[in-house]
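Let us work through a complete example step by step.
Step 1: write down the sequence.
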Amino acid sequence: MAVPDVEAVMRSCPLLAGFPDTAFREVAAMARTRRFGADDPIYDRGSMQSTLCVIASGTVRITSVNAAGREATLIIFDAGSWFGDTVFSPGMPRVYGATAHEEAVIVELPGEGFRQLMASYPESYPIALDLVSRRLWSAMSIIEDDALRGVTARIGRRLLFLAEIQGVRTSSVEPVALKLTREQLANMMGMTRQGVHSRIKALESRSLLALGYGQITLCSPRALQAYIQSLD
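Step 2: predict the structure and record it as tokens.
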């Protein structure tokens, strides 16, 4: 894998968009690059390290494991995404594990360094708080979906959530490709592949989704959002 331009990778991270140009030289100086093969662990649930991770290339899955050892995929992050939310809560253990879903290059920023940079450049706070708040809102929406909505609406909302994690707003009308198989989506939803397949085929028949090898494309997030709302 090619050596990434660390400063360019960090500039592309939405969480760091509030930093001025001068801050990125400091970011690049304290960051380190790590490479992982497919299915290599990046960190385990319960581990105490606190780093902000930005994906330079590849994909990463965030997982949870039950007492019997069964792994559930909670989300799959694509290149340009950030993870490692405990960077905002020093001293707290990782709530979930992270694993390279395919070969991946990760740029890590130490948590203490990240927090010092935010203190030095307080203009970065509004964007960071907005993005963290959006993640919390999306997570709460999923809980609401599970309690109140039917299966088709839950699947559509989960796909919109994955698009939002990539920085795409639900008001967008541009297609959004998610590197996600039907099996992986079923695992996220706690459903069988057959149960998910019939619903996403129905969404495809309405031109809301396009199914390809190893990916699901949202033809228009806005249209999918409107359809989901019509099911309520």
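Step 3: interpret the result. The chain has a mean pLDDT of 88.
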